Amino acid sequence: HIFVAFENKFFGLNLDEFEDYEQAAKTLLTALFIREKYSRLAYHCFPRTTAKFLRSANNEKWKICPVPSEGPYSMEDLPQNLNYSLRMKDGIIYVYDNEDALKQDQPRSLPYPDLETFAIDMSHVLAMIADGPTKTYCHRRLNFLMSKFHLHEMLNEMAELKELKSVPHRDFYNVRKVDTHIHAAACMNQKHLLKFIKDTYKTEADRVVLEKGGKKFTLKQVFDNLKMDPYDLTVDSLDVHAGRQTFHRFDKFNSKYNPVGASELREIYIKSDNYINGEYFARLIKEVAHDLEESKYQHAEPRLSIYGRATEEWDNLSKWFIKQKLHSPNMRWIIQVPRIYDIFRSKKIVPNFAKILENIFLPLFQATINPQKHKETHVFLKHVTGFDSVDDESKHSDHIFTYKSPKPEEWTMEENPPYTYYLFHMYANIMVLNNLRKERGLNTFQFRPHCGEAGSITHLVSAFLTADNISHGLNLKKSPVLQYLYYLTQVPIAMSPLSNNSLFLEYSKNPLREFLQKGLCVSLSTDDPLQFHYTKEALMEEYAIAAQLWKLSTCDVCEIARNSVLQSGLSHQEKKHFLGENYLQDGPEGNDIRRTNVAQIRMAYRHETLCNELSFLVDAVKSEAVAEKAS
Amino acid sequence: HIFVAFENKFFGLNLDEFEDYEQAAKTLLTALFIREKYSRLAYHCFPRTTAKFLRSANNEKWKICPVPSEGPYSMEDLPQNLNYSLRMKDGIIYVYDNEDALKQDQPRSLPYPDLETFAIDMSHVLAMIADGPTKTYCHRRLNFLMSKFHLHEMLNEMAELKELKSVPHRDFYNVRKVDTHIHAAACMNQKHLLKFIKDTYKTEADRVVLEKGGKKFTLKQVFDNLKMDPYDLTVDSLDVHAGRQTFHRFDKFNSKYNPVGASELREIYIKSDNYINGEYFARLIKEVAHDLEESKYQHAEPRLSIYGRATEEWDNLSKWFIKQKLHSPNMRWIIQVPRIYDIFRSKKIVPNFAKILENIFLPLFQATINPQKHKETHVFLKHVTGFDSVDDESKHSDHIFTYKSPKPEEWTMEENPPYTYYLFHMYANIMVLNNLRKERGLNTFQFRPHCGEAGSITHLVSAFLTADNISHGLNLKKSPVLQYLYYLTQVPIAMSPLSNNSLFLEYSKNPLREFLQKGLCVSLSTDDPLQFHYTKEALMEEYAIAAQLWKLSTCDVCEIARNSVLQSGLSHQEKKHFLGENYLQDGPEGNDIRRTNVAQIRMAYRHETLCNELSFLVDAVKSEAVAEKAS
């Protein structure tokens, strides 16, 4: 309570400004209600503290959302088939009790999203972020949060350190850390991939590994055609590492996924659906998983791709996962969907955008309704914890998404739909799916798109509504209102400063430290160890560099690690084990310092600070209501 | 030869400036001759290219200095005892054929250094670095070197990369790297020390490990007295890591050598001369050596301390080294001498400064003259490759060293002698010793002091005369003349940006990248992994962070690695093996790209650039001579 003297947002304001700020508070609260609505509908998490304050404005109660824990590859005791009928309408899958209900267009009572409402909510938040008084208000609050943290640091740094020193057996090395954003195809470092290629060549040179144009090739033939002896291969000739040439060149970066610039090697080594049934890719991932298990305290959430190109993708991916036994206690799986409709459309693989959505989501609904008919997908989905939306955000789109935009079935042009269009339709389907799965007692999925790495800041508005948490978030730098909203709703942000340093933003300009200081919920992640990291322990490299460069304290890095566990798709049981029994509680009560190594002083500071910010908003609205009544 | 158009130092000068610059060139050449003299006398290395240009001004020839390779712990076939007599005079040890010669003060014909000459040489260089025209000249040349490198990069970056890609089997991961500056007492990282402490407690709790005030203590008793269970110990409570609190506080940093702030644990775990005969310390170092051997391509040059407090120090250290079998093919040993006369004097351990010099150097001369009487020291010295001078350079000294300063025997006051005083007397003794050892065909020692980490820039002048190479060199930032001299004479500089970042200079302000670009001979080193590093591979962490933050190319980091081997005390045979048969040759001919992975384009660029800079100096002097003759 050392900050009481500063806890007045009204200091130094005249009456006009005062009224402006009441209005800003009201607007902000509305945004919070909007995000809460979207989160609740999709079974996403919304911070308890923020929810409580919203209830205090409405006199309601709030309930938490625990996630059930799931087993391994067993296909016994599958839930009954329900034989519901399914139909896609406006890009969203609707569920019907049977064919009759379908014919009469009477879908089951699930919350189906409404594009018009979404468009209104979007435009509300878009208007807010451009509104002068709201901008001023948020800008001031963020500055205040920054100064307050500096003060906290000066006053309490040694006390925090003392707390940590007195915690037995727990330090930064053995707190749990989750690599919250990592692509499976780049989850090994360059040296690891190189060694793997050499090893396979040594032991399996005569194995047929590729079929191309009707011809089959052994590993030896592949390398002969490339005029290359794997023994001579080096990380230089492998050429998968991002260099100075990739900065602001996402196109060049993407080609780094081809070892030695040869798409054959990508096909053989880092694809799950190839001539060798993705065996090499699986082995590589399992080696990474093994290292994580050895480290014991490190986890990862690798992204596997579903493109929406064909309807069998899920079946293939699930079979690969189960056949190759990819489950690891230290991994949770995320499905990434690249935003490349335009490519499939121009190659005439799909007739319209709805087809892609159908290829992605229909198999999920089918496996959820009739698990016994889609055993593999059903089993695989137990290990999937979320969806990601990926691609170069800096690509500009001419189309502006409104409720008048062509429906996915009508989106037949070659142009790619804009970012928000992708996000809404992914969110909408995930939301319906989550509600359906919840009914059946099955696990639900988080929506965790890449967002704010580059491009328009409207991306961050879409994700504010639709995402459980995001990757990157760099562009929050550019909008004080959005940054403040992400703070108030504690939207987790998986940041990858080393990746940004190679692609979009120099390390020294990365806002991670600033976000952390202000109290945004940030975690550290590697994105692509294959392209960015030098050492065997990519996540530790990420933490080490951040700690060195920004002179982070032990409490700082442990707070980041705690955020990473909170944000992750680890189960409720695991989170209890890693963060403490009461991790869902607010403030210090929710923190078991013996497990997280985060000082209680820090937890109290964060909680009190968030409560203060929220209470200003709520009080402003209430006082306005009183003033209105009185007048 | 793309730079021909720029290779004219005279562009844009008027006549006055022209004369200034001729004078500056002459002055600089004199400085090069001075350093060459000191290097030759001490069997230090001086760059072949620079020497050639100096010869071209004098029509002489130059010879190289290969170092013979040595065996392990064998005490067979020791050289004969010579029974020379020894006496210290003015802090320098003189060698006499026998007692008669000593009485008549007729020392053997060895080059003994002369303080007066040294003082004149020092003042010459000191005057230079303050001379306006010379400063302007050097500043311009350095700017030119920088711009020229940028141009080189723009034109040749892709060509360099192409060269590297075509080298079979060699990449950054398997080029040899030497950690050129690391203190043995901090050569393990914090996690490693912690684990070691826990392991010893688990297996040897009842072993007597400490004697204090006449009482003996088991490991268990030690921890009981500290009220601490090693099982609960964490890196936080260990508290050896440098944090924000150590910046510009070398005093606080030094206390980080005490685990848990307890000097008992330092005594038990990281001392070579204690109740358990330094067994734990040796085991820790051997674990680090084992990791280096596993890595295969990494080497280190750890510093062990000789204080000069007592005459038995060498004997104890040598016996420890041999008994504990500390030799590793991946390690070479450096002796560090802390500059703490004042502490020993105030505790009345020594009567004057000469006593310290005698304790340090007399045993070395004795072991060199009579190896069979001092077997252990003789054998240990085969593994020692150099001397370091260490302490906080930012401590100010009131005394200014001149030839009128008290001689070491007269230095009885409590005040510590200044930096230059230490350096001169260490250099002087090493020089005589090296000449004596050369006569006997024994290995010689490099003088490699810490220099320019902080404090006065005069330190860098002293080292310019006396050092084979230095550690840190940050303050070269502050003097263009010295920086240019260090460039021209290619004095190797072992830099530790992560250490600096915790102690003296923020990472982003570290001049390493700038020095590298200009062509100074810089290497990367860790200094103290215990205090600064987070990962298991401290040297790789150092390289990774530099490469990430400064966007170094593969060629850049491989050039740094090559410099580290050149600078190191590895043998001539080893350097041939790691860098190529002809590594002593100039330019591309001296580089075996298949071993170093440094592009020949880069080697040619460096060589041509250095030759150009040197030829300007030589031509200026020659043209002046012609002009003088003509007038």
From TrEMBL, chains A, B:
Signal sequence region: none
Cofactor list: Zn(2+)
Recorded GO CC terms: cytosol
Xref: InterPro entries: A/AMP_deam_AS, AMPD, Metal_Hydrolase
Domain of life: Eukaryota
Catalytic activity: AMP + H2O + H(+) = IMP + NH4(+)
Pathways per UniProt: Purine metabolism; IMP biosynthesis via salvage pathway; IMP from AMP: step 1/1
E.C. designation(s): 3.5.4.6
One record GO biological process: AMP metabolic process
Keywords: Hydrolase, Metal-binding, Nucleotide metabolism, Zinc
GO molecular function: AMP deaminase activity; metal ion binding
Family: Belongs to the metallo-dependent hydrolases superfamily. Adenosine and AMP deaminases family.
Function: AMP deaminase plays a critical role in energy metabolism. Catalyzes the deamination of AMP to IMP and plays an important role in the purine nucleotide cycle.
Protein name: AMP deaminase
